[in-house]
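Entry:
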Amino acid sequence: MSMAMQSQFHSYDSQSFYDEMFDRDLSVRPHYEGVHRTFARMKPSELAARHAAIQQRMLEEGITFTLYAQNQSEPLERTIPFDYIPRIIPRHEWETVEKGMKQRVKALNAFLRDIYHEQAIVQDGIIPRAMIVGNKYFRPEMAGLHVPQNVYMTTSGIDLIRDEEGRYFVLEDNLRTPSGFSYLYKGRGLMTELFSELYLSSAVSDIERSLNVFLRSLRSLAPSGKRNPLIVLLTPGAYNSAYFEHAFLAQQMGIHLVEGRDLVYKDHKIYLRELSGLRQVDVIYRRLDDDYLDPLAFQGDSLLGVPGLMNAYRAGNVAIANAPGTGVADDKAIYAYVPEMIRYYLNEEPILHNVPTYILSRKEDREYALAHLDQLVVKETSLSGGYGMLIGPAATQKEIHAFADAIQRDPGRYIAQTTMKLSRAPVMLGGAMQPRHIDLRVFVLMGDSQMHVIPGGLTRVALQEGSLVVNSSQGGGVKDTWVLSR
């Protein structure tokens, strides 16, 4: 490493965390040599110019995310922070991740079918019945309902982290309306344009074909196997924090972007209002939560959904992706049982392990957690996006006492997890490279029993020094993720 680069990385502690680019002695890992060499040769002025070009392009294309900060009266729309030092995953590592993702999603899908039909996993005592029927995302309306192709989760976003030894762990399962696809594709577009020589010389696995797989997965859900189904993306509207993504995906896949008012229920079918009349909708890729899908079935005051949608769904005249009720499987308490699901449904050992998790409705787990809150991460089981969390090692005594009181009042509302030393990667901040913690959201697509893992997924970055919270809703950024093809 040159003297210039040594000074740039002076803040790295080679003993505390696993670093994606550097080994413990700060030597460059072999699969990062080309990237390291490229950035080492670039002058600060050139790096600043690339950064400015990226920001300008993101503004022009409207690549935004809406923040809802507690200390602000109005939501803040901003460009998603994008770091242009790519995260690189060697082929042999990715092969293990890919197999682990397919195994996990297959088991989760089997679990969803089971709990809405036979509930064998409950009857066999693997998961307590109360944890299912008492779950806020469990939908009795789905009991006994046939789901097209038995595919409950057309899209899944599984969050992975690495510990100080570089081992992968599953942190969370996002199975309702996982987001981040647009940042994955837009990030790749920025890198191929602004760092084209580096990209082309790095043998990076292609992600463009995954959009075709996405569309094919949605098509496969069409009732009666219709050859040219009408597919729509149902969005809450332009004020939703992820609306940019909704518009992007609809445009890229050539499907209609609609709001609830654009659809109408008639004769147990759903139709799209067009100037020429009504056209029957076959598949709805929904990006709004269950509660708002159908005011006649769920939340009665919803103005976002389609009255009668669940009647059409029950009649088998329209498919919904992801299926209503999938949220029960990404509940943070149910997460703790996924390794048992893999053993139960697949008769296999998990390829990727969970972060050690404590179920606080269990007396022994609760007592341990309450005595060690300063060492654990506590999460509300029904929240996501980095909300409702306590990170013990970084919390004040006041925050710890508040969470202890909340846990004692309603222990089933929380889980606790071991605080993992998330891996780090270099990011460019203020013209210098600095280490920041990262995770990886891996996207799995499923249709007619076939699964596809998008190569690389979305690396999320905790931009605040020392922070472990990578969520965009909490101010985190993203990186392009390169899976090497050789």
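The CA atoms of residues 169 and 353 lie 5 Å apart.
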